[in-house]
Structure prediction request, 419 residues.
Amino acid sequence: MPKMTMIPRVSPQARRYVEEVLDFGFHNAGSPGISARLEERFAARFGRRYGVLHANGTATMHSALLAAGVGVGDEVIVPAYTVAMTGTVALYSNAVPIFADVDPETWTISPEDVRRKITPRTKAIIPVSICGLAADMDPIMKVAADHNLTVIEDNAQCFLGKYKGRLVGSIGQFASFSFQASKHMTCGDGGILICDDEELATGARKAATAGYSTLTAKPGDNVVAEELRCHPSFTRHTSLGYNFRLPEIAAAVALGELERLEELIAMRTTVAACFSEVVDACDWLIPQKTPDGYVNSFWTYTVRIARDDVDWAEFRKKFVDLGGDGFYGAYLPVYREPVFGNLSDAVKAQPERYPHFVGLLPDYRQVSCPVWEAIQPRVIQLKTNYFELSEAERQADVLAQTIQSFGSSGENRRGSAVS
Prediction:
């Protein structure tokens, strides 16, 4: 991708599409067709047949699980390193999230641990392209095929990344993307689910749109025709569904951003290269490994502190004091979020309230993924959503000053995957 120096925060084309929606007005039975255009073009960009817009990138995964028939008593395998919602969508579906550990160098879900976690109740796997890097999909797809499991790619943090020559999003039965404000392309919030199977796409559409009986996988088909709705005998709802539709005005912004997706990714990649130049000269900051054959889309530029005498909070404070824009730590192992332990306690205390979880829900306070638990406290996620190269270069310079301020004391652990 070309080196970028500056891009606008919102594309001019997005503004024109918003004006198109506003000029058309808001109507219950009609639209200017923006949503249909976005669904069709986004799916095609990733080589898929169908796209279904959603209000956010959590609803997408929820709809995918429902379309795949995941429900009470089923298990869904998710990684320890992800946002909590990758796990909670299983709970939303009355299923049980099961957590798999990560690879010690890429920090994506470990196919070996996935294989170990499969039981007769497993129905789906949600591998996550974390920080812009794809999971190792070939063995995941193999184990899924062996056990007749649905694979839902969670690509909220990865647009135009590649896995062994294939676009991330073109591999699983479903692929989910987020348009939340921090993501590569955004309309403030929103998301899209893409797939190739018409039955699955129709099921996801109905799950996202109140279970309306006439909905199909056709692009933009999220409103029941007025000539049907007007009749008192019309049977509207044939399945349980939610109201996850994305407003047309948000779809207008997303369509404009989709049309410049390559330059958005190029800017992130350029920013990451600025940080990489600094980190490559440091023997105690270890970047997330991008294996040969992968293309990282760098939602963040992510490294691990490999010196025991460098405290994460002190490193961040020095970075900010020197003029840095701050950075994020990595998410806690998801099962350590209080909501999971609290749910385990509640099922034990009041089994009559949670009959579908009794005997099936793990005690999440006892769950352990030791690889990620060792790595997580030492991870730095540097922001890449800058729109001027000069600012990215300034942030990289601050990072270099921060590294220099800590000197070279302490044991060199460059060769260790986990310190």
Notes: The CA atoms of residues 132 and 298 lie 5 Å apart. The chain has two domains: 12-260, 262-331+371-405. The mean pLDDT is 95. DSSP finds 14 helices and 13 strands in the chain.
